[in-house]
């Protein structure tokens, strides 16, 4: 197969590309330039997409003996991932930019362009498995290394793009083995730190980034009874479940910590309260995508639900429906939704988060949280 290997400049993508070469595929490496104002160097393990990363990707391609290109996807990245990030926070929701990057950049812009150029598949260094049934149906499964599993952020891709995706690291038992393999292959990135935080907020100051882009918008912080207990500089900078940085003017009557319960963008108000008020038992999700075999519409089924990239799955019942959820951010009414009943509840779920449904290790589907109820 002709395979387009996404080379980020890190160790995972380099080893994944090497394994694709070993498998006999005709591999071409490509680095996605996602920012037009990239710093020359990363700060330790913060961020990615720097000029340093592009150079590391080129050197890895040279060692592997494969062609290498840089594709400028910065405008697409700004218009989709960054714009969505700002719009979601401004609307009082909490987005996951890695999910949107996989949706709009790695498995839309990159894959679609690759297919148009005659490539059969895209290869990435994500930790997830693809299982192919006798009838050709492909399933997305958790990685063997549960600690590195990335099926949560990949679930948004859906079955069609999964059919053109390769994840050679899915069966690797540990990241240490990947680093050892990279060193054995002579790849200089073998000891390079993993990137973390939001790639376009390389200093890790998400609130500062939002304030620079959205401006100062002072407003009240109130308790669950509506009494003003503090002030904020912009409701958009807060998320459900947040405890730190509230700067409350007076303590709670019982002296216990308070958490963000709700962000009311219409009134520019942040509502805080006790920890027990964060636990919810019902979730609504929109923009749902389903993997084959998809569950029957309207039929309840047992599953586990994960609402954070490295969160613990919890037991639940769910069903798919065709109508958009109330207050949905969907662009049209054709998107499916999902309803979820949590067996034991979850704490601090914010609209905008990605919820992923599993049956064992298999991804059933994914949706964006629109509402939660206690």
TrEMBL record:
UniProt entry keywords in alphabetical sequence: ATP-binding, Cytoplasm, Disulfide bond, Nucleotide-binding, RNA-binding, Transferase, tRNA processing, tRNA-binding
GO CC annotation: cytoplasm
Subcellular location: Cytoplasm
Region (Interaction with tRNA): 148-150
Name of this chain's protein: tRNA-specific 2-thiouridylase MnmA
Organism of origin: Actinotalea soli
Reaction catalyzed: S-sulfanyl-L-cysteinyl-[protein] + uridine(34) in tRNA + AH2 + ATP = 2-thiouridine(34) in tRNA + L-cysteinyl-[protein] + A + AMP + diphosphate + H(+)
Pfam families recorded: tRNA_Me_trans (PF03054), tRNA_Me_trans_C (PF20258), tRNA_Me_trans_M (PF20259)
InterPro entries registered for this protein in UniProt: MnmA-like (IPR004506), MnmA-like_C (IPR046885), MnmA-like_central (IPR046884), MnmA-like_central_sf (IPR023382), Rossmann-like_a/b/a_fold (IPR014729)
Residue intervals of the tRNA-specific 2-thiouridylase MnmA-like central domain: 208-273
Record-annotated active site: 101, 199
Transmembrane region(s): none
